Amino acid sequence: MVYRVKVNPLMIKKAREEIGLSFYQLPQILKDAKEWEEGTKQPTWKDLRNLAKKYKRPPVFYLMSEPLKEEGEDIIEFRSPEKIEEYSYELNLEIRRVKYRRNIFLNLNTEMGNILPDFSRFVFKNKSSSKKPNYKEINYKDLGKHIRNFLEIPFETQKNWLKNDNDKPKYDHSMFLYQWKERLADLGVLVFETEKVSKSEMSGMSLYFDLCPIILLNGKDSYNRRIFTLIHELSHLVMRESTICDVDIHNSNETFCNKVAAEVLVPKDTLKNNIIFYNNGNINYSGLSNIYGVSQQVIAYRLANIGKIGQNEVKQKINEITEKNQIKEERQAQRNKKSNGGGMSKPAKKKKYEGQPYTRFILNAYENNLISSSRFMRYLDIPVDKIDKLHDVLYG
């Protein structure tokens, strides 16, 4: 006899819609999903387990009378009009994952009696009496200075990030991304990266909470792009906003946060005193890019901001750099097609997509016997026998 479970059809429908799937996208084992949602047929426990795998919701979720209320504000859409549509399956899954990781992080810290930093103290206070800052009342330079002040990263420290632990320069600027992430972790921000979300769908996302706000970066973007997006999304957080962004789009709010990010990453007062020239007298954009850990495009914009170059030179330089980057990307794409490599290891993926601070926290909790092996595997989705390799990736 087949035992069927009395589920709530609305919860099954909600789980499917949240993750952005239509019926035709479901595998054969979920062929009865439409009937389950209509209430004309009840699933078995095996069906619920298959649903759980595909929808990333536990079987008990489908038995609930209504979903639990989730903390946080609605996400503000700042992407270009052609991208404003239902989130892809991959993006929906990533959003659910980052919220899940945040809950783990909060609950574990509560169990340990740790006091987490309150991010709300960094929210920018505008001139009005309203709780939420207003873009129209704020100068981007003031907000940039505010962020730079609470980050407390001296310029002398920043320019030394080009070198790794072996004192050798890493011109891909990966060390800059690592250091900015570490600093935000100190301030209570959880930073994660997507693995499978298309670059064309989003550049970044911010989810505001007083405790442990989240920044989600597109893991397919270059280091420079992710660095800029990181600070761009931080700008939204200090405005107490939850947003999804494409930092290339030109609307007033996104342009404002782009200016803030440039102000934070390349402070005006330092740039004036650190312009590098070639022997022929031309500005060394590459050298400046490596001092600040940003793209040459950002350097061009900042040089224009301080009056060192004109708008025509900015456009010319941007076009030149864009063409070079496109050629690099095309060549890299060809190399990737020819490569037979197995890709990143699972420990390396944990470091990249879940972030070193979060992954270290879970690993340290396990190594200090604060969580069991089963909880460790559930929280990080990695076998215990990979711990040595994970340790090497994080600390090696």
UniProtKB/TrEMBL annotation:
IrrE N-terminal-like domain: residues covered: 187-303
Region entry Disordered, spans: 325-352
InterPro entries: IrrE_HExxH (IPR010359), Rad_response_metalloprotease (IPR052345)
Source organism of this protein record: Methanobrevibacter curvatus
Domain of life per record: Archaea
Name of this protein: IrrE N-terminal-like domain-containing protein
